[in-house]
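Before a colleague's protein record goes any further, I have to sign it off. I want your independent view on whether this chain really folds as the tokens say. The record follows directly below this note.
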Amino acid sequence: MTQPIRTALVAIDLKELMPRVLSEGLRAAQRYGLAAHLVHVARGHMDGVILDLPEGSQSLNREEAVSRVRSVVEGEIERLRGAWPSEESIPPCALHVMVGEPTEVIRELEADLEAELVVVGTHGRKGLSRLLLGSVAEHVIRACSVPVLVVHNAPDVPKIEPACPDCLSIRQASGFQKLWCANHQRHDRPHAYHFVGRNVRQHPNHPLVFPMGAQR
């Protein structure tokens, strides 16, 4: 008897989050031995499909929309292939371009494919934008009956400035008795340290924690 193909469903958009979601989705599929079904849910109207692209929204007929999505996804997969470990292969992929409400489409496709994993992205909106737009990832988590991997947008990592050369010179010259140059002297604030005496049990509020086998 032929074994059914085990699948992961990876929901992608066509904007800045797509490369990260696609990469994490394909890596998860490869890790668990799953085929990857990629789905892009577009907005529909009477004359065709609206694609939300990095350069703006475009209204296309269905054939043009499918061709455009396929071109974007294939280009990103080729880019990933160059960074993929040489001893591993990108899992087999299938692409679905569908029109509708994203959560409903993802839930129905997950059930049709009997997917074992769903991968979605989140832009991490907060406050009013989250209240107005909602979170597709949150709705998918609630709607799907299988594990959902949520891929967050890459965090903004603050740039670390190099150390002040004058501060470094003062520290070396003073044997670290002084830390700051004149420009950064405001950082040199005294600190108060409080130490607990060795006989902790004499304190009325000593913690009731004992080593294993210790005498109380």
Observations:
- The chain has two domains: 7-152, 162-191.
- The beta strands are 7-11, 35-45, 48-53, 56-60, 93-99, 117-122, 148-152.
- The chain has a mean pLDDT of 80.
